[in-house]
């Protein structure tokens, strides 16, 4: 039974996370992602509109530019960024997150995000 529960937990974890690959748009010397973030361990979680209990210090997508690279890739406002190119983003400052996302030598950003609608869909399917 323990093996079954471990497998179920793994499947739920995978179902609650989504991988998104964003190809940065080159505009002159700038690389554009097409989204903004909020949050971080140095920010007031009470000001985060996406934190349900107002204690979550995670990095959240606060704006997605219509038609921009992030929207085309499927990123949505309210997504919580868990990883950027394999780097853990759960305990970073806002500035550390921004720097990780905007590295000049990376044309592609691979995100691992969680999304409330993913959680709700899994919960609903288990009823």
Structure description:
- Keywords: Acetylation, Cell membrane, Cytoplasm, Membrane, Nucleus, Phosphoprotein, Wnt signaling pathway.
- It is a peripheral membrane protein.
- There is one protein chain.
- The chain is of the alpha+beta class.
- The chain contains 4 helices and 8 strands; from the N terminus they run H-E-E-E-E-E-H-E-E-H-E-H.
- The strands form 2 sheets. Strands 1, 4, 5, 6, 7 and 8 form a 6-stranded antiparallel sheet that branches.
- A hairpin with a 2-residue loop joins strand 2 and strand 3.
- The longest helix is centred in the N-terminal third of the chain and has 14 residues.
- The chain is globular.
- The two termini are 20 Å apart.
- About 6% of the residues have low confidence.
Structural class call reads alpha+beta
Report mean pLDDT, rounded to a whole number: 85
Strand content: 25-35%
- Give the SSE string: HEEEEEHEEHEH
* Low-pLDDT ranges: 8-15
N-to-C CA distance: 20 Å
Largest sheet: 6 strands, antiparallel
**What is the overall number of helices?**
4
Dominant shape: globular
Radius of gyration (Å): 16 Å
Q: How much helix is in the residues?
A: 25-40%
The total count of strands amounts to 8
Write a brief structural summary.
Residues 19-116 form the PDZ domain. With 127 residues, the chain is an alpha+beta fold.
